[in-house]
Write a structure and sequence with these properties.
Elements lengths: L4 E2 H12 L3 E5 L4 E2 L5 H15 L6 E8 L2 E9 L11 H6 L4 E8 L3 E9 L4
Parallel strand pairs: 2-4
Antiparallel strand pairs: 1-3, 4-5, 5-7, 6-7
């Protein structure tokens, strides 16, 4: 991952190391300018582990390119109506990546984490 962080490659690396059962829809060309992927790797791992505790079905992982940047969406079916506490430090740790995070639940249906990476395209 020399010239920045390739999000698609990073997600597939996580999937390989975690032996994660998931459905993927990953756009190509989603590259962040930062050089060190380790902090982002830890944050994405936290989000995956958080969602995995909510259900046993396969996760859906989408990475999309938008005019404003990139959107990473992690979704898992769940029977829960309320979510356990989410680490609030994640929001602060995403700032160096010009990213924001939101956690949503559709009670007894699914839980979703969206990470928006705001990037200016050349």
């Amino acid at each position: 991952m020399s010239e920045g962080i390739n999000l698609k490659q990073l997600i597939l690396l996580i999937q390989e190391h975690k032996n994660l059962s998931a459905h993927f829809c990953l756009d190509v060309g989603c590259v962040l300018p930062q050089a060190d992927p380790k902090p982002l790797l830890k944050m994405i791992n936290y989000c995956i582990n958080y969602l995995r505790q909510l259900g046993n079905d396969d996760m859906q992982i989408d990475l999309d390119t938008h005019r404003w940047g990139y959107l990473l969406v992690l979704i898992i079916p769940t029977k829960l109506s309320e979510l356990p506490p989410f680490n609030p430090e994640i929001h602060e740790q995403l700032k160096p990546f010009s990213a924001t995070c939101s956690l949503l639940i559709e009670p007894s249906s699914y839980a979703k984490i969206e990470i928006k990476f705001h990037q200016s395209h050349a």
